Please model this.
Amino acid sequence: MSWAESLWLRLKPLFRRERVARELDSEIQFHVEQQIAENLTLGMSSSEARCAAIRSLGNLTSVKEQTRETWGWTRVEEIFQDVRYALRQLRKTPGFTATALLTLALGIGANAAIFTLVDALMLRKLPVTNPKTLIRLGDNSDCCVNGGAPDNGNFALFSTEVYERMKKSAPEFEQLAAMQAGFAYRPIVARRDGTAETARSMMGEFVSGNYFKTFGLRPAAGRLFVDSDDVKGAPMVAVMSYDAWKRDYASDATVVGSTFWINMKPVTIAGIAPQGFFGDRLSTAPPDFYFPIETHEAISNAPYVHNHDIRWLYFIGRVKPGTAILPLQDKVSALMKGWLKETKIFDNQTDKSLPEKTHVMLTAGGAGIQDLREQYESNLQLLMGASGLVLLIACANIANLLLVRGMRRKMEMSLRTALGAARARVIRQLLTESVVLAGLGGLAGLFVAYVGAQLLLKLTFAGAHTIPIDARPSFAVLGFAFALSLLTGILFGVAPAWIASQANPAEALRSGSRGATAGASLLQKGLVVLQAAMSLVLLVGAGLFAQSLTRLQGKDLRLDSKNRYIAHINPQGAGYSTKQVEALYRTIEQRFHEVPGVKNVGISIYTPMEENNWSNSVQVQGQAYAGKDGSVVKANAEYFASVGTQVVMGRGIGVQDVLSAPAVAVVNETFVKDLFPNGENPIGRRFGAPGPESPGDFEIVGVVEDTVYTSVRWKDHRMYFLPITQRAPSEKVPIEQDPSMYAGALVLETEAPINNMEELTRKTLSEINSNLAVVKFQTFEQQIADRFHDDRMIAQLTTLFGGLALLLAAIGLYGVTAYTVARRTSEIGIRMALGARRAGVIGMVLRGAMSQTVIGLAIGIPAALLCVRFVRSQLYEIEGINVAVMATAVLSLTLASLLAGMIPARGAASTEPAQTLRAE
Amino acid sequence: MLEPQHGWAIAKRIQQVSREVLQVQQGSLYPALHRLEQKRWIKAKWAETETGREAKFYELTAAGREQLEKETANWTRLSEAINLVLETQ
Model:
């Protein structure tokens, strides 16, 4: 007999229970009949023969029972029996079952969904070899191309020279890789050679030659980088991401080895990165291409690759086994300090304590560069807190429901005990019911978690073309949720089971439902009070975030987004040199004005309300450098009109402000307020970068209103605007290398909405030059709405959780009130027989229900006031809870409680006194 | 009794072979048979009797034969020992 057969022999009685039982029956039956036949041949009468045959076997049932026991499944069968009985019990009380399942599903599902997001964004490691041994140099996401030193001396962003030196002087690193910090802000234009495809805007990241080796990756096709690829003068090569290969080139094997025009430079594709590798960080726009650092200058016209003062790289390395991290961290910090001293970068700093403060933190690099994590951390913590509260409320609900149920079944349990059921058996039965309920709730919760996680991801990354996260909850999350559900069931199943089993059967049976027994226990009422308090806290939170969103969105941005379209472009990627752009901009203006309905054609390096900011230190001529900086936008003459920024003094940028004309600037009101504090007239004054000559660079010709750029939260934002093709006369960087000559965006203002504006824009641009790809096209309104996306998400989710909490609290209150009413039916009947009126009965029940809500409010209001301090930093212009938010929350809770109390109260009032009394 | 037999026949056979000395308590036969089956010393299958009725037939397995020999040897040794003790008295 094979092991499988023998296993089946063991298991058959368990799974084929009925069939095996039938077989046993017929086996015994056969025996009896054989015996009867024999008895008949011995001359017995037929009835005698039958009796004798059965007698010889003994008690048939007992024989069968004994035989079954040899199968060894009695215990398991009992459990099955319990489960079947539990399911039957649950089916018999659909209201209770549905409520409990819904509560568990929502409570557990919401938490598992949030935790999926937390897991993906904050806990998951990169899909690389042995991510645990990766070490990152630096603990923040300073970005993207910075000069000088960070204010706090905490370095995370480094120059190419530091990379080379670190690699040489820190042999503790088995591998040390460098990667471009701000690739997300510099898309590239790509077109495969020898094909008719149009140029595409894609993402490209510049990385060191040992990048893939450091992560321990193997190519999906071709080869990955080797050190010799990242050497000046080496043939230009690239590695394509697996996703781009599959998405844009249908996994065509001939892509490897073929030539691509990247920003109009010929680059050979060396290989394809492995499937699943999305780069060194989570991102909604992961790199489609990887290029060696040394090609950055040629491909992106980046002048800073070998500028020792410009920091643009992140480092991730793998240390040799057995290396102690702390001494290495000290060594790296010392190397950094030594290098800064040598290169005299400290000398230019105003902060003299900088050499002292300079340090590098070594952190775990397994999750890569965690800028997305930094962006979402506080929001996720908030959501985890909110969903945790919802779970607590859900648990309280389950506890309450099970308690109510347990008490209701006291009679039944007493009867069972009286009939001889063991106490342990009774407890086991009740516990089985709780566990079955929790298991079913857990399953429903998994479903909610799955759907919820999908929804959350869609909400979080709305509009992103790639969602970098797998929305399927991981096994860990699912296991956690399921275990939580079971734990809730067991924990809150034990108490009622214990209470029920403690009942003295005689006493319980004697009193029955008679008598004015007390209503719900203190424990039950306490749970309801707690629920009310917690849901108030959540409701207040939801109100605050909703209000914060309203304030953010209601803020006057001092710009006009109506009938405006923004097209992001990349002239550098299309192959234009900085000397050609002036002519290009004139052509763009002219061609777009030829499109019917176009009113203004703004051209600038970036636009209001997008995630981009160029900032410089500024010094007014004739003043000492005050350590102030300002954001700079370079733009054409129609730009102010196209975004709706008003000129309040002097003039805006004019068509005459070309490269060969005198350098001028327009500043905003805050700039004037901060740098000309004594009410001086700024027109005609000069400013520029701090230094001996540079403050005389730009003459102020006009002042504009403070338009909001980057973020509504950025207040008192000093800004200045320069003509897009002009440069500071004192500028040392040659014009060929000046990235500020390149426009990043077109702002098109039309007379009326144009439905096919995107198509028109692409067509017009490609008619100028087929390589002028559109990086991104949006209406101005969409661009603005995107900036409120996170705030909107938080407001929506906290409102969702607040509503959920309210619903659960109301269900809890309803459950307890309904239970109390049921217990007091006879008492109410007597009261009504003695002349109590319907209104009086309703009032009595409602008073009982509302008293718990009122106590809940009394606890919840101070708790909410206390909790608001934890979220204040995430709110916009809201210092504390205001009356409107608090009143709305209190009112919602009161109304929900009234409703939850009213249903059982009306039921109580419709009691027929005669009938209840007769029923006794 | 080496060919397959059904429960009733087994009971009868024991009775006959022992010259009616051993009256098998018929009620305890089936639990015993099922226990042996679970231990895989015997195996069972449904088949027709001479009279054309379906019955469950039991048959010794290889493991069962081995076990039988072991038990028989044990029994022989034990009964011999008891005989010796009784004879010396």
DSSP finds three helices and three strands in chain B. Chain B has a mean pLDDT of 84.
